[in-house]
Specification:
single chain, 202 residues, mainly beta, 8-stranded antiparallel β-barrel, two-stranded antiparallel sheet, 1 helix
Length: 202
């Protein structure tokens, strides 16, 4: 029995993670209707900001939660931490991870990604960036107990706007495009991903 992995939609802005599976056209997953952005609490914000005041290291990331109701109900969680090092005042490089977990009425799905990134900051108002990620995807169909796995590399290039949140903390809002994306073979539904994240230590 054949099983075709459909389009995997990852939105890096609030990072909504939706997995659309096609099992002989059996499942058409609805858009998840409930969305929450999990931001760092004010106490944690203060502690991290103080600890990075005079350091070359930067920390941050983003997290998201989605949920849905009805025949195709489920929940999806996304966490993407990042650690960077300031080579100079405006140039930063580091390592970024990505973990997506989804539990729907049809399947369990996990996606794990990791890779380096580099950002160049323009007056702390804008940034240009590039990021490589190697993704590993695992899926388990509940009805048949069948398991499937795949992997894919992505190279994102983009940039965006920065909004100061504290002495050395910023909210980054922008978008990136995966130059390795191929419509007919990629597990992702699009090469473009919006991006929102928090960075401490800049």
């Amino acid at each position: 029995e054949s099983f075709t992995t459909g389009k995997l939609l990852i939105k890096n802005s609030f990072e909504i993670f939706l997995l659309n599976l096609n099992h002989r056209n059996f499942l058409k997953m609805k858009k998840l209707s409930l969305f929450f952005l999990m931001l760092i609490s004010f106490s944690a914000f203060s502690q991290v900001e103080n600890s990075t005041q005079n350091s070359k290291w930067t920390f941050g990331g983003y997290a998201g939660l989605t949920g849905g109701f009805g025949s195709n109900s489920g929940i999806a969680v996304h966490i993407a931490p990042r650690v960077g090092y300031k080579i100079s005042e405006n140039l930063e490089t580091g390592l970024m991870g990505s973990l997506n977990w989804q539990n729907s009425s049809y399947s369990y799905s996990t996606l794990f990604g990791i890779g380096p990134f580099v950002n160049y900051y323009l007056g702390r108002n804008f940034y240009l960036g590039s990021q490589f990620q190697e993704y590993f995807i695992n899926q388990k169909v509940k009805s048949s107990e069948e398991k499937y796995s795949s992997n894919e590399a992505a190279l994102y290039i983009g940039g965006g706007y920065m909004q100061r949140m504290g002495n050395n903390s910023y909210l980054q809002i922008g978008g990136m495009y995966n130059v390795l994306w191929k419509q007919n073979s990629s597990i992702f539904s699009s090469g473009f991903v919006p991006n929102i994240g928090v960075v401490f230590g800049l």
